[in-house]
Amino acid sequence: MSLVGKKAPSFVAPAVLNGYEVVEAFSLDQYLGKKYVVFYFYPKDFTFVCPTEILAFQEKLAAFEAKDTVVVGCSTDTENSHFAWLSMPKNKGGIQGVKYPLVADTAKTIATNYGVLGGNFDIDDNGQMIFVGAPIAYRGTFLIDKEGIVRHETVNDFPLGRNIDETLRMVEALQHVEKFGEVCPANWGEGKEAMKATVEGVSDYLAKN
Questions:
Q1: Side-chain half-sphere of 181: how many Cα atoms within 13 Å?
Q2: Among positive and negative, which fits the CA dihedral 188, 194, 199, 200?
Q3: Residue 39 pLDDT > 90, yes or no?
Q4: By C-alpha distance, which of 124, 129, 154 is closest to 140?
């Protein structure tokens, strides 16, 4: 079930900040009323597609920050695993140089509440608890506004890397809507014409484009 239009699930969990600082009680609540948040999930530390995305977010971090937006990553690995990977140079397969927070969802409750856990717990014929599926997170991305409301989400399967530029475009689109009260048509980009949410507005836009 989509979280769009709903309050982003709250959590308190360990995280690694600035690439080296381990904190035990990280929460997105600290950004309420202050920042937009791009909160994204990735499947595993020390894998293959994941570092390309994590590093791509870091490369675009200044662009997100210029839009008053923080980036926060999350997987079901431990904070110790995050720390070890963050300490490893990129030419050795690591993600050294990543400065934004990486959250440790070892209980898998955050991924579950955001609807991106790749499976679920069940009971087998012998009454034993089992996990059906993959006990890791899909590549979920959530854009949360300053009021803590999810305004955009996408979820990719494990082998499908996401487009970081598209995530930034959605931040820009949301902020344009909030600032100007216009809506953003297909393929809109910052600096392009948007339109009024009226019949006349749509007609004018289509006539010009």
A1: 2
A2: negative
A3: yes
A4: 154
Backbone CA torsion sign across 154, 5, 132, 41? positive
Residue 208 has pLDDT above 90, yes or no: no
Euclidean distance between CA atoms 72 and 54, whole angstroms = 10
Domain residue spans of the chain: 13-162, 163-209
CATH of 13-162, one of 3.40.1350.10, 3.60.20.30, 3.40.1000.10, 3.40.30.10: 3.40.30.10
The confidence score (pLDDT) of residue 116 equals 98
User: What is the pairing mode between strands 129-137 and 102-104?
Assistant: unpaired
Active site residue ranges: 50
* Tens-place pLDDT, residues 57-73: 999 999 999 999 999 99
| CA separation for the pair 203, 209 (Å, rounded) | 10
Q: Taking 90 as the threshold, does the pLDDT of residue 143 lie above it?
A: yes
What's the pTM? 0.95
What is the rounded average pLDDT of the residues 37-43?
98
CB within 8 A of 150, min separation 6: which ones?
Answer: 3, 4, 5, 6, 7, 8, 142, 143, 144
The phi, psi pair for 158, rounded to 5°, reads: -55, -45
Mean pLDDT for 28-55 is 98
Average confidence score pLDDT of the chain: 96
Q: Which residues lie closer than 8 Å to 170 by C-beta, 6 or more apart? A: 143, 152
Q: How close are the terminal C-alpha atoms of the chain, in Å? A: 35
